Amino acid sequence: MSLFRLDASIREDGSTSRALADLVEKHWQETAPDAPVSRRHIGVNPLPSDAWATALAAGATSDTDRTEQQRQALTLASTLIDELDQADAYLFAVPLYNFGPSQHFKTYVDLVTTDPRMAPGTATVTAGKPGVLVTVQGGNYSPGTPKEGWDHATDWMRRILEDVWHIDLRIVSREFTLVGVNPALDAFTDMADQIKGDAEHRAREHGRSLTIQNRAA
Amino acid sequence: MSLFRLDASIREDGSTSRALADLVEKHWQETAPDAPVSRRHIGVNPLPSDAWATALAAGATSDTDRTEQQRQALTLASTLIDELDQADAYLFAVPLYNFGPSQHFKTYVDLVTTDPRMAPGTATVTAGKPGVLVTVQGGNYSPGTPKEGWDHATDWMRRILEDVWHIDLRIVSREFTLVGVNPALDAFTDMADQIKGDAEHRAREHGRSLTIQNRAA
Lengths: 217, 217
Prior knowledge:
The structure is a homodimer. Chain A is an alpha/beta fold. Chain A contains six helices and five strands, in the order βαβααβαβαβα. A five-stranded parallel beta sheet of chain A has the order 2-1-3-4-5, with helices on both faces. In chain A, helix 4 (103-113) links the parallel strand 3 and strand 4. In chain A, helix 1 (16-31) packs parallel to helix 6 (189-209). In chain A, 49% of the residues are buried. Chain A binds chain B through residues 10, 43-44, 46-50, 52-53, 56, 97-101, 103-104, 106-107, 109-110, 113, 120, 150, 152, 155-156, 159-160, 164, and chain B through 10, 43-44, 46-50, 52-53, 56, 97-101, 103-104, 106-107, 109-110, 113, 120, 150, 152, 155-156, 159-160, 164.
């Protein structure tokens, strides 16, 4: 029962997505003591910005004609898929940045998707395995708020993780992480505390559920 | 009357977004002969994957304490904003990739947004200027199609270009660019031809409109 954890925050200290994911991991570990965790920090150690296009070009080139750079891109893609293949469960911690997906997570998805083991329309090595997506947002883009609809990341991440990679996904989201940081949001302190508490509750719950295959909805 | 053009396709030959943007540019140029065009090809010459986080860290560091890497990231961000500031009109050609935004365009937006001249909630150097966004999709994600809702990029790009950067934006989109490439889509040949023709019509029309400030909706 091993876990693959991916963090996309560009911060190490003070990252709210990391803190929530730590909670998921801790409660998963209580159900699976001594189980191994493999990790990748794509926000802090980003994948090269030309790896995806290079891997695609390599895929269209016969093995003997590939450049050294193309071989490296294929090796990197293959390493990423091995990490997914070898894990029994997943934890993705990906913040909303500028109202859209993390650039580093999009780069990761693009590169992973070049491999035949993870291409759209295939069985994928991740199919049916349990996963948790932790996502955090500085503001609040929930239904009924003035900026409803400004979260353009979560639906895309669900599309990839659920519909393309076929992961059995649960989501832990926390809005208003800038309350307490940006004084203009001080009026929302109580609401933000409630949101934080709810998110932590879900993090514990979904962390424990990661060992359960075919979890009920 | 100068134009700034940005291409995010990872291909040079056979890129359908480039071909449509060429048409926009050609018809803009007929209305503004000899006007200069500045260009950036972020799909082929990608921005470094650590520039955004480095620029953010630089912004939180006093000038005298900045590292050489931080200075370079700020200089790069500043160059990108100068390109936007000095242009009178914009042409963005950005394909849909893996059902979401181009990783390279997201990286560009993140880096541009670090500069006080382009931050969310500010007047921005692009405000009120005319622009065209060209976007292309291999499949068809329009309302009524089986994959309606799988385009998770266009709404986010509009959000940034219109609501955050305040560009007076027109859109040229072309779906089904894989018809004629992927034999499984051969049944849609007539529909794809119609879509292509409509897109080219809009490209010509919106190209001509780029010289007109405050275009009627």
